[in-house]
Amino acid sequence: MADAERMRDHWWWRPGHRTGRHYHACHFAMGRHRELAGLVRTYQKALEPFTGLDLIPLPWLHLTMQPVGFLDEVGAEELRRLWPVLGQELAAVPAPLVTLHRPVVRAEAIYLPAVPAEPILAVRLAVRKAIGEVLGPQRVPESADQVAGFRPHVSIAYANTGQDARPVAAALATVVTEPVLITLDQVELMRFHRDNRMYEWRSAEPLPIGAATG
Asked: Model confidence over 58-117: pLDDT tens digits?
């Protein structure tokens, strides 16, 4: 994927989102992977001179996968019923083994693609199946077309203003690193938000992946 030539502010509110309106999501918490954390720190060191970028603290590194619903739309009883079904569906898919290496500069963020994408997509489809079974197909967030364009990645910085992306890409190109290979053996059911101009979570309950296949 080619780097963008210009960046723009990432921190605009998406439809339905606002300060204080948190949501449930099944995402991968990635800061626990030490090799990945080292890779991210190396690239972020090269990005420190750029004031137009918000570097993502290691505790908030994540791989965005599948929203579940806003807290004011998914009740505690629905979440309680969803939990075992998520566990059952995730146990039936293999834990993805993915590589992360060179970053890509996009219009609003800098991220590390996770490849291959297909095993992570299989996990996402399992989560969507569980949501549809418990909450109903009409309440599965995001369309099939959006899922078809899914490119799993771990962001390392967000743009906070309009700026030329080419110096950013040039700085990253000088960094010498080795690829990181990671097994994604669990996904977290999170209470997710971006109240502080950073994606954070109030809770993250792990769900094992591939327990029935390993």
From this structure: 999 999 999 999 999 999 999 999 999 999 999 999 999 999 999 999 999 999 999 999
Count CB neighbours of 37 within 10 A: 16
The three state secondary structure string of 121-177 is: HHHHHHHHHHHHHHHCHHHCCCCHHHHHCCCCEEEEEEECCCEECHHHHHHHHCCCC
Burial call 89-114: b when 16+ CB within 10 Å, e when fewer: bbbebbbbebebeebbbbebbbbbbb
In this prediction the pTM is 0.95
